[in-house]
Amino acid sequence: MKIKNNVIRLLEGKGIPFQAFELPAEKLGAVEAARLLQAPPQQVFKTIVITREGRAKPVLAVVPGPREVDLKLLAKALGEKKVHLPTEREAEKITGLQAGGISPLALLQRGFQVVLDRSAQDFSEIYISGGQRGLNIRLPVEALVELTRARVAEISKGG
After folding, report:
1. Helices (H), the chain
2. What's the CATH code of the domain at 39?
3. What is the largest CA-CA distance in the chain?
4. What share of the chain is helix, strand, coil (3-state, %, to 5)?
5. Which residues span the domain enclosing 116?
6. Per the domain annotation, does 122 fall within a domain?
7. Which of 69, 86, 107, 114 is most exposed, with the fewest beta carbons within 10 Å of its own?
């Protein structure tokens, strides 16, 4: 059975070349997803919800699977004093999506600012969540940046 959700429809509708991959529907980390996709872990990106001080809209930080969001670097890239990492449950409440299925493409109409780690530019295509657990999408980095109006910055550490 082929998954057909709003992310797939969006990409098809805009004529963006992509490939969808169905994975087990349980919550997988990006490194585990990379193993199943037989892709380099650095090419499989995860979307992390980050909150700002005050009432400003949360941010979606998109970073390579083996790395972590560097909150200081991200705050600097956003021109913020401080940003915070919410709990998994808070992230799900903020986005309306399950952890493991949070995708910047599924949240385009929700007004989230997207910041993509600069390392994505090492690849012509990267893998991201397709907006639900068990669905991963490989698409051109430029298409992701264009669709999400992502800011590209150095925002990760480790791995």
Report:
1. 6-13, 30-37, 71-78, 88-95, 141-148
2. 3.90.960.10
3. 47
4. 35, 30, 40
5. 6-157
6. yes
7. 86
Structure confidence by residue, pLDDT tens digits, 3-56: 788 999 999 999 999 999 999 888 778 888 999 999 999 999 999 999 998 778
Q: In 3D, which of 34, 42, 11, 16 has the Cα closest to residue 159? A: 42
Residue 103's pLDDT is what? Answer: 95
In a domain? residue 15: yes
CB hemisphere CA count around 153 (13 angstroms): 20
- Report the alpha-carbon distance of residue 115 to residue 77 in Å, rounded: 8
In a domain, 1, yes or no: no
Phi, psi of 150 (to 5 degrees): -65, 145
Instruction: Provide the domain count of the chain.
Output: 1
Helix (H, G, I), strand (E, B) or coil at 153: strand
% of the chain at pLDDT higher than 70: 99
User: CA 143 to CA 131: how far, in whole Å?
Assistant: 16
Q: Which residues of 88-104 are buried (b: 16+ CB within 10 A; e: fewer)?
A: eeebbebbebbbbbbbb
* Domain-located, residue 29: yes
What are the distances in angstroms from CA 130 to CA 3, 75, 77, 93?
A: 10, 26, 26, 18
